[in-house]
Amino acid sequence: MPDQDYASTLTSLGFQPVQPIDQKLRFGLETIYSAEPSLRIENAFEQEAGDVRLVIATISYRPSSGQNSRSVRETIAYFEAPDLRFADFRLQPKGVTGSLLGSMFSMVGFQPVHVPGRDEFNETYLVISMSPDSTRRLLTDDVVDAIMTRRDLAVRSSGPRLVISRSRTVLPADAIKDFVYTAQSVMAPMTSAVRDAMASGDWAPRKEAFDNATQVGGLAGHLLSGTFVKPEIVEQFLEQSPPRVVPPEIMRRQVGYGSIFFYIWGGMFFVIGSIFVIVFANSEELPGWGVLLLGLIPLMGLTAIVLTWRYRAARKRLLRQGLLCRAHVEDVQPTSVYINNQRRYKVRMRIERDGSEVEKKINAYGPEVETARMHIDNGEPTRILVDPQNENRILWIDSLMPAIERPRQST
Q1: Rounded to an integer, what distance in angstroms lies between the CA atom of residue 287 and that of residue 35?
Q2: How many Å apart are CA 102 and CA 111, to the nearest integer?
Q3: Cα separation of 54 and 47, whole Å?
Q4: Burial grade of 269 (CB within 10 A; 0-12, 13-18, 19 or more)
Q5: Does residue 361 sit in helix, strand or coil?
Q6: In this structure, what are the phi and psi dihedrals at residue 149, rounded to the nearest 5 degrees?
Q7: So where does this one cross the membrane (predicted)?
Q8: Is the Cα dihedral 234, 210, 135, 167 positive or negative?
Q9: How confident is the prediction for the chain on average, in pLDDT?
Q10: Span 40-98, pLDDT tens digits
Q11: Is the CB of residue 327 less than 8 Å from the CB of residue 382?
């Protein structure tokens, strides 16, 4: 619970307590702090003006640098405006921690960002981003001047969200008012800069990040190429009429090689089990019921082979024969399930088919969740493939691509 002075200070500034912590705030902060596990939110107070939201809260997390296994706590200002698209970047004071952070993130494709003509700022702060050109457009003179009023600010951004903090510091009540004013003095010119950039017509920070990572290669390029399919490949695939020729990139992503293991496993059980059954049946060393029990081994292998074949055939049929339908993302809700350290989310969609609408829920993880949120924020429809033989089997085809800026598509 916040102390009385902390609460009264924020209340006097027009903030209201956030009770309980809502899922949208939790998702937004989990997105920005995706590299830091064990995120917790407390003492949250908010101001809202339409869809625009400013939250002051205390958070705790484990630092991604790995230099300290203990949790870090800090007071943050969280800003969210669904109609804005910031370039994803991180800013923090230089020093041992900053240098370590820069070295670590450079290994996975992040690049340092230098602001021309602002040597003092460049010497004081480390800025890293996978879209350095877009980030540089946000660091206008007004933004840099606001940040330079202090030497201990940290800034993170992701999509429509921005977080400002005093670099791993929990602020006392008597410092909250000054912190709110400082955060607002940074947010105001930065939101103005991103609005100007978006109005220019060439604002595409996520596309820049994706292009840079795939061109540079390294760990980031390898991860992205294995996680996403290039948009032009997906668009060319969808331009075909069924039966489609499936590009290897899409086939590998959807069918994969993992299921081949079950062919091998099933084949081994079937062959070895069959040999045992034949040998013991001819030797009469086992009673009849024993031979029948041994017969379960090749039966298990055969079952694995058949189920794997059916699974792969169904996935291939969905890609080749699937009906392309328009869908609208309605909601994203977290679950308590984690797979490979990624929280499972349920994405609720309205799918348009044959003049009617059907509601479906699908599982989503990591970047797929961000894609779903992007469609909710901008209101744009997305695309689904529906199996003509089983309408419950669907594929969210747009989730194969990275959540980057691209023109509206029609079905």
Answers
A1: 59
A2: 8
A3: 5
A4: buried
A5: strand
A6: -65, -20
A7: 260-281, 287-309
A8: positive
A9: 83
A10: 899 999 998 888 899 999 999 877 655 556 788 899 999 999 888 899 899 999 874 55
A11: yes
